[in-house]
Specification:
Elements lengths: L1 E2 L2 H4 L1 H4 L7 E3 L4 E9 L10 H23 L5 E2 L6 E5 L14 E7 L6 H15 L9 E5 L4 E7 L5 H15 L1 E3 L7 E5 L12 E10 L1
Parallel strand pairs: 1-4
Antiparallel strand pairs: 2-8, 3-6, 3-7, 5-6, 5-10, 8-11, 9-11, 10-11
Helix pairs in contact: 3-4
């Protein structure tokens, strides 16, 4: 059995050092994904749809992990990667302080060993164990090519992210780039801690914004 550790393979993207902003350009990567939108008057922390989507995505990814570990041909063992979120609005201005107009794509990185047939078999397995539901039909396997980004490891609660975004934008200007978050790009968060179990002051969240030369 071979072992894959994507966090080590893509250390600059998933295990960055705390400190300053950096320019990164992730290669095309394969993800299990699900899309949705935050309900009016809610935020990600109290959205029933967001919670259901997160649970469905995690359930599928752990099912995939154990299926690949047990398969007869080319078994693979790997740790399930952290949850990521792409966030955007389809009307108005993206504002970190106003969350009930946000759309999201939740993603979990998959090893190359996971193919469409593996994904379909894992979905069937989840349906057999838990019963079918509309949300399972929203799960997909897709490749995401993000492009050049500015990245920063944010330390602390989500409410203080605007301070980190301001630092990122200052860095962009200094390096001759323009922030494409908004109509053209999506606010990208990678959750290295669980807000349900961690002290908010100790949360670690990787922030990425798509950029282009100014």
């Amino acid at each position: 059995m071979r072992t894959v550790d994507l966090r080590q393979d893509y250390k600059a993207l998933y295990a960055p050092h705390a400190g300053g902003c950096v320019l990164v350009e992730p290669p095309p990567l394969r993800f299990a994904v699900i899309e949705g939108a935050i309900e009016k008057g809610r935020g990600p922390g109290d959205s029933p749809g967001f919670a259901e989507a997160s649970e469905a995505l995690y359930g599928l990814c752990f099912t995939l992990k154990f299926a690949l570990k047990k398969r007869a041909a080319d078994p693979v063992d790997y740790p399930v990667m952290p949850l990521e979120g792409l966030w955007w609005v389809e009307d108005g201005q993206f504002d970190l302080s106003v969350k009930d107009n946000w759309h999201y794509k939740l993603m979990i990185l998959q090893p190359d060993a996971v193919g469409p047939a593996d994904f379909a078999e894992a979905l069937d397995s989840v349906r057999e164990k838990k019963g079918d539901s509309p949300i399972l039909g929203r799960l997909r396997l897709e490749t995401y090519a993000e492009g050049p980004c500015v990245q920063l490891l944010h330390l602390g609660p989500y409410a203080t992210e605007p301070e980190s975004i301001a630092r990122m934008r200052t860095f962009m200007v200094q390096e001759g780039y323009r922030d494409r978050t908004g109509p053209e790009g999506k606010h990208h968060e990678i959750y290295l801690g669980d807000p349900r179990r961690s002290d908010p002051a100790k949360l670690k969240t990787i922030l990425r914004h798509l950029v282009e030369k100014a």
